[in-house]
Design goal:
This protein folds into two domains: 6-160, P-loop containing nucleotide triphosphate hydrolases (Rossmann fold, 3-Layer(aba) Sandwich), CATH 3.40.50; 168-283, no CATH class. The chain is 43% helix and 18% strand. It has ten helices and nine strands. The chain has helices at residues 18-27, 41-50, 69-82, 96-106, 111-116, 120-135, 149-160, 210-217, 220-242, 260-273, and strands spanning 6-12, 31-33, 57-61, 86-93, 140-143, 168-175, 186-189, 247-254, 278-283. Helix 1 (18-27) packs across helix 7 and helix 4 crosses helix 6. The chain is globular.
């Protein structure tokens, strides 16, 4: 019986948060290896299995610099499963504009810019195309476009520190004017609710403001909507758990992502938490 219980491989687009994720895994007790040459991974596992240590969880980053990354990840996954070791492959991504912005802020050089002597925009586009097959191998895809470093750290912490096998629920409030959260499993449109934006004293607030929250929650339309949502979640969440769906993203949208969607997400956070599920909240557009 292997003493290793959990292996996490972190991959994805350059600039999407792989190093931040790895650092968080280290903080929660994983033995971490950055920029791991995957052909050497079996040797690492063999080493850990035979040394006198308390290492039970390993996290490693691999990226586009591994020219055979698709086959190497596929072979590593098969090896872990054959050895009876649980493995999670995480693929991180972000949209092109956000990646360009991050590289501009850090003044780092994209790996493909170095390898192929191409400008940043072309390097990002090329990497996205090259990594599509790798993305298909992932157990979890995380779009970090709207994540701050702390958001990503909190996400990793909540997902991988959970002891229950119940699904981890990510709740996202957003504004339709800024686009849909691409990682969503379920999306609810609450633009039919009365809009505090048209109430002078509430216009410049958010759904985190008590008067705004109370204004939305007191409406008959809200109560009717939530009655339906409560019933649906009570029925569906146990089904996700039964089917071993470990991660579920529920997004709630209004026009600008400041008032109605924020209020509903805050309410759902308390409701779902009361059902003994682990919940993380991201108010994506609240500061736009």
């Amino acid at each position: 019986m292997s003493k290793l219980t959990d292996v996490v491989l972190i991959t994805g687009l350059s600039g999407s948060g792989k190093t931040i994720s790895l650092n968080e895994f280290e903080d929660i007790g994983y033995y971490c290896v950055d920029n791991m040459p995957l052909p050497l991974f079996p040797k690492l596992i063999e080493f850990i299995e035979h040394i006198d240590s308390n290492i039970t969880k390993v996290a490693a980053v691999c990226d586009i610099r591994d020219i055979n990354i698709f086959n190497d990840i596929k072979n590593t996954k098969e090896l872990m499963l054959h050895s009876g070791i649980n493995i999670n492959i995480i693929f991180l991504e972000a949209n092109k504009n956000q990646l360009i912005n991050r590289y501009s802020q850090t003044r780092r050089t994209h790996p493909l810019s170095i390898l192929n002597n191409i400008p940043l925009k072309k390097a990002i586009e090329s990497e996205k195309e090259m990594m599509q097959p790798v993305k298909s191998l992932a157990d979890m895809t995380i779009d970090t476009t709207s994540f701050s470093p702390n958001d990503l750290k909190r996400f990793i912490l909540n997902k991988f520190m959970q002891n229950s096998k119940a699904p981890f629920i990510q709740l996202i409030s957003f504004g339709f004017k800024y686009g849909l959260p691409l990682e969503s499993d379920n999306i609810f449109d609450v633009r039919f609710l009365p809009n505090p934006y048209f109430v002078n004293e509430l216009r410049d607030t958010t759904g985190l403001y008590k008067k705004t929250y109370d204004f939305i929650m007191s409406r008959s339309e809200t109560k009717l909507f939530l009655n339906h949502i409560h019933t649906m979640l009570k029925d569906l969440l146990p089904m996700y758990k039964k089917e071993s769906k470990n991660y579920l993203t529920i997004s709630v949208g209004c026009t600008g992502g400041k008032h109605r969607s924020v209020t509903i997400v805050e309410h759902l956070k308390d409701f779902i938490t009361s059902m003994n599920y682990k919940v993380n909240v991201l108010h994506r557009d609240i500061n736009k």
